[in-house]
Fold tRNA:m(4)X modification enzyme TRM13.
Amino acid sequence: MKQWWSVMVEDLNLNAVKSLQELPYIAIGKHLCGPATDLTLRCCLVDEKNVEQCGSNCHLKGLAIATCCHHLCQWKHYINKKYLTSLGIGKEEFHAITWFTSWAVDADHGSDLSDVMDFKLHPESIEKEECAEDAIGRAKLGFMCKQIIDTGRLMWLKEHGLETQLVKYVPSSVSPENHLLIASF
């Protein structure tokens, strides 16, 4: 009979997984809400302090993680605080940024918001125009905040020697949670 183990990603040491030792592997994650993305990135990559322990057993070749639920990100788990602090963003500002990310997913996504900067309004009244402009402005801010969070993640992966990119895998009209973080050695 096989035994199944349950483990939290923040406690997982991939180098201790015998079935992965000596084998190349890639990490794939979909819908890793907020801090789960950061915890997974940390889990997949060896800290400089642990390189000697890893030795030839580290065979991560790449990863693909669909980022989402940025509003749930937590300062204590965020992977690249150094990047944020270089921008003058501390713990309080980070919490504000995560709060604003919800505006990107709260918007009306009947059309693709990737062109939100070029979106032209033709409202029937001044009142409707102000409401629409507010909604678009909120969506823009939300997407910018999501981008700040994911850019820090990309930069952290680059610092660990990976080639990285953030790609849009479906239009915003399908899902506003539509970015895939890709990295490879």
